[in-house]
Amino acid sequence: MEDKTPDCLSLTELVAGLVHEIRNPLSTINLNLQLLKEDWRESESPRDKRTVKKLDVIQAETQRLEEILNDILHFVRIESLELQPQDVNAMLDEITEFKASELKLRNIEIIRFYDYNQPRCAADASLLKQALLNIVLNAQQAIDKDGQIMIRTSPENGKVRIEITDTGPGMPPDVQAKIFKPWFSTKKTGTGLGLPTTRRIIEAHGGTIQVFSEANRGTSVVVHLDPAGPLNPADRPNGASAAND
User: Fold this and answer.
1) Residues 191, 68: contact at Cβ < 8 Å?
2) Which stretches of the chain score pLDDT less than 50?
3) Measured distance CA(243)–CA(110) in Å, rounded
4) Cβ contact 153:114 at 8 Å
5) Using H for helix, E for strand and C for coil, what is the string for the chain?
């Protein structure tokens, strides 16, 4: 029988076990907070109303802890990849359609320029989608409202190239130098693991990720991935190679 003493455990196993042990009491805390709020919600007593507000704050913080634990798990669980030929154009369409309603509410326009002659990339669909979604989410958060996110795909030097550009405020050099460091975040509620996780996923695929940004001039994120063969002509949409939404 395999020895699973701490010295033999991988970092991923240790972190996953720790997250599991923290989640159990957090779930109990959340459940009991909900029950307490239900007991006091209908009360007209000023004291009870103040108590409910305090419970709301505590519950919000426990939910934030859950999100941090999820981010930590995503960060460490990038080991074995299930590589299959993936159409990045279709993947990006899925991501933008998923975010479409929220982007519309914020008056953020998605503009897509796809090259449908580029090859598929060799990728783990779930992980690559997570990485690209993180980039789109960062672009959305940078803009906040009233702006554009431009997505371009093209073959470049034998690689599949993906570029996601936003019209947000951009980043000064000191911030840009830290964006891939775990726990660094300019957001009040951010864990700082989104972009480090994205880079780990891209590099696990043998790809590269670069960020180009200037204060007051927006940000571009460029990803290069290895190809996995040409697109099947039957998978290529009819029409022009550039589509604007």
Assistant:
1) yes
2) 1-9, 231, 233-245
3) 10
4) yes
5) CCCCCHHHCCHHHHHHHHHHHHHHHHHHHHHHHHHHHHHHCCCCCHHHHHHHHHHHHHHHHHHHHHHHHHHHHHHHCCCCCCCEEECHHHHHHHHHHHHHHHHHHCCEEEEEECCCCCCEEEECHHHHHHHHHHHHHHHHHHHCCCEEEEEEEEEECCEEEEEEEECCCCCCHHHHCCCCCCCCCCCCCCCCCHHHHHHHHHHHCCCEEEEEECCCCCEEEEEEECEEECCCHHHCCCCCCCEEC
Contact call for residues 52 and 37 (beta carbons, < 8 A): yes
CATH top-level class of 84-244:
alpha beta
Q: What is the pLDDT of residues 67-122, one digit of tens each?
A: 777 766 666 666 667 888 999 999 999 999 999 999 999 999 999 999 988 889 98
Q: Tell me, rounded to whole angstroms, the distance of Cα 5 from its chain centroid.
A: 33
Task: Give the global pTM.
Answer: 0.68
Every domain of the chain and the residues it spans: 6-76, 84-244
What's the CA gap between 126 and 81, in Å, rounded?
A: 10
